[in-house]
Amino acid sequence: MADVVSIDPRTGATVEVVAQETTTADVDRLCKAALAAFPALEELGRDGRALLLRTLADALEERRDDIVAIADRETALGSMRLNGELTRTTYQLRLFAEVLDEGSYLEATIDQAGDTPMGPRPDLRRLLVPIGPVAVFGASNFPLAFSIAGGDTASALAAGCPVVIKAHASHPATSGLVYDILAAAAPKCGAPEGTLALLHGLQAGADLVAHPAVRAVGFTGSASGGQALLRIIEQRPDPVPFFGELSSLNPVVVTPAAATERGATVGAELAASFTMGGGQFCTKPGLAFVPRGLAGDALVEAMAEAVTGMPAPVLLNEGIAAAYRRISIELAEAQGIETAASGGAARGAGFQAQPLLLTTSAAALPRQATEECFGPVAVVARYDGEQDLLAAVGALPSSLTAAILRGADETELPALLTDRLRPLAGRLIYDGYPTGVAVSWAQQHGGPWPSTNSQHTSVGTTAVRRFLRPVAWQSAPQSVLPRELTDGFTAVPRRIDGVLHLPD
Amino acid sequence: MADVVSIDPRTGATVEVVAQETTTADVDRLCKAALAAFPALEELGRDGRALLLRTLADALEERRDDIVAIADRETALGSMRLNGELTRTTYQLRLFAEVLDEGSYLEATIDQAGDTPMGPRPDLRRLLVPIGPVAVFGASNFPLAFSIAGGDTASALAAGCPVVIKAHASHPATSGLVYDILAAAAPKCGAPEGTLALLHGLQAGADLVAHPAVRAVGFTGSASGGQALLRIIEQRPDPVPFFGELSSLNPVVVTPAAATERGATVGAELAASFTMGGGQFCTKPGLAFVPRGLAGDALVEAMAEAVTGMPAPVLLNEGIAAAYRRISIELAEAQGIETAASGGAARGAGFQAQPLLLTTSAAALPRQATEECFGPVAVVARYDGEQDLLAAVGALPSSLTAAILRGADETELPALLTDRLRPLAGRLIYDGYPTGVAVSWAQQHGGPWPSTNSQHTSVGTTAVRRFLRPVAWQSAPQSVLPRELTDGFTAVPRRIDGVLHLPD
Known about the structure:
The structure is a homodimer.
Chain A: E1 3-8, E2 13-20, H1 24-43, H2 45-62, H3 64-75, H4 79-102, E3 109-111, E4 114-116, E5 119-121, E6 124-130, E7 134-137, H5 151-159, E8 163-166, H6 172-185, E9 196-199, H7 202-210, E10 216-220, H8 223-235, E11 242-245, E12 251-254, H9 256-275, E13 287-291, H10 294-308, H11 318-332, E14 338-342, E15 356-361, E16 377-383, H12 386-394, E17 399-405, H13 412-421, E18 425-430, E19 468-474, E20 494-496, E21 499-501
Parallel strand pairs in A: 3-20, 7-8, 7-10, 8-9, 10-11, 12-13, 12-17, 13-16, 15-16, 17-18
Antiparallel strand pairs in A: 1-2, 3-6, 4-5, 6-19, 14-15, 20-21
Helix pairs in contact in A: 1-7, 2-4, 2-6, 3-4, 3-6, 4-5, 7-8, 9-10, 12-13
């Protein structure tokens, strides 16, 4: 068995052995336990699972300082960011408890028996039910909010699905601590053994997505990692849904009016957005379209100034730092790309990365500028006019987000850009930046390929829909129906004979 | 170019050349036209598309007799069934118009800007938008309701997606007539050119799912056909959702109480269900669990009696008839399977098939008895007691449906069976038979693999969800928002700050 080690990214040194990689036999045992736990977890009902989620949130809050300390040591993300991320994590758990309280997510629907133009119709009742055990992959860049107790786990538990989580190798100690806290708290409110499990190791992750008990997979990570898992899923005798969020360019368009009105401000804000968290966000703006001319020049100068003064951030792990060096150098040296500014150089044994601001021409956008480079680099593409801009924007790959910075009263160009960008993004942002993804009812974090999550979100309340499937009961006796479908139940919204009814 | 011919299944004779197989260049042209039509079709809005669907339904009704005559000549399904199927088809188009009128399907959601425990939240507004051009594959067994003007087309058009339809080779003349009717009617209510297209030929179908303009695929057909398309989709640079409904066993369980109370009736009804339409339904009950003993014997005798007196139905095409002969013989000759009754023998040059009733033991269920055999054959598995029954049922593959026939006041065994069968089916039927799938709000036609449609339905109003994807607008000016998300719009249900509001 191979050791799972925790490394300090600030020094590159191995700090401790945290665990052993999970064996294939143990993956099998844990997945079977998850399957065995499934009926009892569903049986807890909406109330029981809402209590579970709130209990888990409370348990994490009680250990806030320990969690943040160990996460900071393993990720170098800093305690302010990590405190915020833990707040996000517990808020997220509690918000899914509200989703359960409210009950719309069940899509409870009743068609009463009767005659139709098609002939007599039997009594039909439809509800979304949990899909079964879910495999969750912790993300490198969010050790808390997209990892053990993150959005995938919260939404799967809310749905009623046991969760088997593969810890990310970047933060195994944080993962272990968070898991221990959850595993100790869950039984206190009746969650069955097997509700949660933790795995370590690449092979364990592969075994997990191949396991017959697993009914869906949630993944946030690299395109190569996600595609490797997808290949395994395609080989299953029964392929299961794969909700992957694999990479994203997140284009930002600054209109001429916005550049003229507030170029310097936008430049400083854009620089802050693409370097935030070391540029290690799936929503990092990797490509910004800025008009040629004086106003655009001022914007780029403000970005360059911010980048020049910036120390080299410490990236999450050696692999990400090495990939950043390789890809950012390839990008900087690509035909048609120039370096506008660089920040402090990477030095020492830790996983530092030099911030970089590059420029190019929108009319001859190099391929490399349209591909995600994880880390503190962004490309500014200068455009000459609307036609130049719209043509370049229309040829972009899909992203999680697209942002439009416009003039105070500008409507025409933003509307044209909206038409071009909507097919390419899950979230459209106006006069703001893509980093910072609110957890709320209306959020959408996904999009067309390279998200495999094109019809769902991994952030926000509707993330629960990924782990549900519809079942219809035809002419069923009351005794076998889920309570939300029984006659006279009024505590959740229900559609009856096509008409939506709210709770009394 | 290869001829597309229309064959009379009653005689096996080629009646006419209907068209030429669509070339790769023409598939490309039609898919590009669909993509070009997409913005204008969406622009029609909910009202405009509801009018479109009703107009198409009216146009089909006007040509009812012509459609039924040609469909009967090509499928041998009979004019009563085909009249019913056309009624279902036009009802379905009109029901999706109601879905558009009602507007819940948009999942309109607004989170107003404000403070949260996570910090300040921007204004976020979410709506489901059409996914883009949809590829639809006509089914062999429903020349109307699951073909050119069928549920996939109706739900895709409702969503706002142009549709490129591959006609099934079993009924190209019917497909051509229905397409011509739709294509003539659509422009009358403003549908852009490119809203609908028709393809013929196997290679054209493969070209279609590989085309970059196609954003989702709806398929009803064989497991082998569906898996071939899935392989093509997996090779796309941007895999798209594949909503396939590939095969289904549809187990039926008769409890001892039901057998005792009404064994002979159930036997006659079961025989009618599995031979209906020549046994060519995806919901055909292929396997029935019947208790051993006198009551069960009487049930099987009633089935045998019905089958013995039954003439050989004409199947849809030569391939289906040949596969039926091969698979039903293999099934009948499998270890542990006995033939209880056979109907009229297949004779003549047409595609006739001999009805077959087979029996076996639930305790030693042969693999072949758990696989779909398209055509007029069913297997009765006799069981000894509850334990025997529950063990056999729990080991079944997933199906579109599972049915439980119970005693008048029986609750305990039906509840146990429900627990076992729910994970394996999309629809649970009590005291009824799986054939006959109502088009309604609460319908679910799908299920775990071998449906790739596990989280969605291909029948009923929520089928529209397959062709939609969520988009969030952050801090957007009113001028770029879809009207259903603008301030003060009240004509559709909307969730505002987590609270669902119904129209005034």
